[in-house]
Every structure is written in C-alpha cells, then in structure tokens.
C-alpha cells in the first residue's frame, strides 16, 4: 500500500505548501504589527520621569464634592506647586503620541511587501497547476492518438496490399524469375510506407517487410514461403526457374486471401 504522499498529485502538494507558507507569513506579520509590545502601532515610548529633588510640595488635591484639601505644611518651608494648565485637580493627563513617521512608513512597506509576496506565490501556483493540466492533457491526447494509430495499422496495411495487387502481380510475372521474385518482395516495403508504417533504423528491408505482413496478420505459412523464395533469388547461386515464380504466385494468393483481399 502506498503512502498518502505518493497518491497526492504534485499540484495538491504545491497548494498545501504555498498555503502553509502564506499563513506563516501572515502570522509573523500579525505578531510584528499587533504583538504585545505593539512595536509599530503602539503609542510610543513615554518620557522619563524626572528624579531630581522637587523644589515644591504637591498642590492641594480636590475631592469629589469640589472642595480642596489643603496641602500639609512643609518643614522645609517650600511652597505648593502650581496646578498644571487644563487640570483642575492637579492631575496631569498623559497624552499618547503617535509613532514616528519612519516607523509608519516601514510598517506600510512591510505590509506592501507581504501582499506582493502572497500575490506572487498565488500566481506561481496558478501557473504551475495550469502547466500540469496542459501536460497531462497533451499526454492523454498523445496516448489516444498512438493507440488509435496502432489499432488502425492492420486495416491500412491490408488496404495498401489490395491497392498494390495489380502492380505486384505485374512485377512478379515480368522478366527473369529471379529478378521478378526479388522485385515482388520489395513491393511489401512500398505497401508499408504507403500505409504509414515507418521503417525502424535497425531493420533490414527483409525484416521490415516481414513486420509489415505481421502487422496485417497475414498467413504465416505464405509469408515464410515468400521470404524463403526471396532469399534464394537474392543470395543463392542455383538457378531460379518458372517453378519458383509459380510458387511465389501461389503463396501471394494465399497471403491476400488471409487479409480479405481478392487474389
């Protein structure tokens, strides 16, 4: 049993990887922008409190009903401090200051870079998925075309054998029996080329002709006899007579009948 990863298509694994990367980047950006310390969006540092010895005592503190509680007497003879402007009870409001401009610019640049990176990853993912879909579709069409061509080859070879029957008979019946048998055998090569069956680089002409007839599912006995007569006529030194021509004509008739072609 194969593992889950082996059954997962490459596009699905890419989707998971890119999605995880995007989520990680978003979390990092969120932690940076909205974390506990609020580095980019916080109110900024507060001014340090002075630690020097005060030259005055705290001002009177007001109560809820509006009455003022007088400040206690200071043994050092210091006077009460002035009440800060805008504060009736002596308390000082803390004003939150926005972060510096360069911090805001840096934050926007980081956000823009994050958005651009996520967009680039999404576009890359879409391009990868589309490319894989096109490759798979092309492979499927190629396999279908090859399968159709292989199934159609016997029919096309038989049609070419039938179309070339008159020419093959004329070649076999003309001239010297030796040359006639050789020329008639070479007609199978012409028929195979016309049927669209390419000859392999490693094949001899005789092997190619045998493969053509084997594709068409011709009678093996007649094919063997014709091949034997071709070799005798092509390579032997003994005489090739009219009897050999007659045997070639008879074997050719049986071969055509096995393909459904009239003799």
**Could you tell me the number of beta strands?**
2
Task: Please bin the fraction of helical residues.
Answer: 55-70%
Q: How would you characterize the largest beta sheet?
A: 2 strands, antiparallel
Instruction: Give start-end ranges of low-pLDDT stretches.
Output: 1-7, 145-149
Order of helices and strands: HHEEHHHHHH
Strand content: under 5%
Characterise the protein shown here.
- Helix content is 62%, strand content 2%.
- It has eight helices and two strands; from the N terminus they run H-H-E-E-H-H-H-H-H-H.
- It has helices at 4-7, 10-34, 101-163, 165-172, 177-194, 205-215, 220-235, 242-258; strands at 61-62, 68-69.
- It is rod-shaped.
- The model is unreliable at 1-7 and 145-149 (pLDDT under 50).
Name some characteristics of this structure:
263 residues, mainly alpha, 2 domains, two-stranded antiparallel ribbon, 8 helices, rod-shaped
Explain briefly what this protein structure is.
The chain contains eight helices and two strands; from the N terminus they run ααββαααααα.
Task: Please write out the topology.
Blueprint: H1 4-7, H2 10-34, E1 61-62, E2 68-69, H3 101-163, H4 165-172, H5 177-194, H6 205-215, H7 220-235, H8 242-258
Antiparallel strand pairs: 1-2
